[in-house]
User: What shape does this take?
Amino acid sequence: MSDTDAHPETRLVMLIDDEPAQSRLISAIAARDGWRTIVAGDAETAIAMLGTREGMQLSAILLDQWVPGDDACSLIAELKERRPALPILMLTTSASPLLAVEAMRAGASDYLVKPISPERLMEALRTVTTREAPRNELAPLTEKMSASLDFDAMIGTAPKFRTALAQAAKAARGHGHSLIEGESGTGKEMLMRAMHAASPRSKFPLRIINIASVPPNSIESVLFGHEPNAFPGAFDRQIGALQHCDGGTLVLDEIDRLPTVLQERLYDTLESGIVRPVGAAHGFRVDVRILSASNLPIDQLVGAQHFEAALAEKLAATRITLPPLRERNGDIPALTRHFLGRIGDQPGLKNLSVSDGALSLLAAYDWPGNVRQLQSVLFRAAVYCEGNSLTAESFPQLSEMLGETDGASAATSHEGVGIMLYTEDGNLRPLEEIEADVIRLAIGHYRGRMTEVARRLGIGRSTLYRKLSDLGIDNAA
Assistant: This one.
């Protein structure tokens, strides 16, 4: 009986890799999440293995780009031709967006830049193989574009979002610690980068650590450093992030995942200003600012005794909450055009417009992955777009999920999408048509109170009535 028969819940992944050390590492990481790995050392072996009994049981393929080299995309295309439903993830050391575009057009589900943390690898595998989640089109991608570092790149006009930006901009000018709370994908890391760039510490070191991505037995050394022989395997001295960032900023993402014993130690370090590496007889005085982020409300974790109250208070000299995208739905049109502008600047892609039908569809979705998911969906749509504009047809799975009727009705209920600016082919509508729609919207919004309509539109009542006549609008509309 095979391992797969003995453990029916075990999932099978093929790794195409010719480096034994990396193969063992990836196999060990995958095993933590219930995966069994079979390894193919070259393209020919991988293709042959597809036809075996194990090959028919595969749930995913991991392909190291260096195995087929320049022919990686050709191999992806051949694998997809033989097994169209099998997701393929490419592993590479190249951060080139052009390679990402080529790999995805060939049929890759995602593109992972090495070195990749165990958590990111497992998240990518889970995403492309979870049946309950939308496949392909709505699956979040690994970041393909470098993040901007200033507040101008934070797009949105929703009151809660602007309040968060104002708090962050004010806090950036000081030296106190800040805690940013919000769901995954709302832009917490981007905001913390912008805060550092706008701060008096911008010329000094910045280091970003995702606590969840660091193995639990390594977090202490990563933060505090260690001396030689401090523990088995510590052959050299390691300078910790707190000491490395002296004078600068240390970003701690997913701070809620920090082990309790290290929460106490971090508090003591921030309180005393002295960091003591593991195994050191003495400490070092440091001046470091902590910008931390949590996907969960820290107060709830403190109440459940999962987070040290003293550390929470210390980190949250300024507390900022980023709202989820579903609470600032009116920002979707501006975000969409901003992302499409950035996507169009990437090698292998072009500048695309977006129709109002597509915007209405995007606005009707709740975006559980928030802004990061929206950017991923637009990137994927741009990769496969053959025209010059994204339309509702560019998002077939989104249309299917929402349903044509539900999607249309949901879209009309969201503010910011009521006036269609573009035709389905991506061209602007005539000004006269847009003006007529604006007046109709205003009459409906202010319930036919024409004095108020005229005041809000910035015109006189006589001018309003003349426009109604010229445009053929019934003022009872």
Observations:
- The radius of gyration is 26 Å.
- The chain has 21 helices and 16 strands.
- Residues 1-8, 405-417 have pLDDT under 50 and may be disordered.
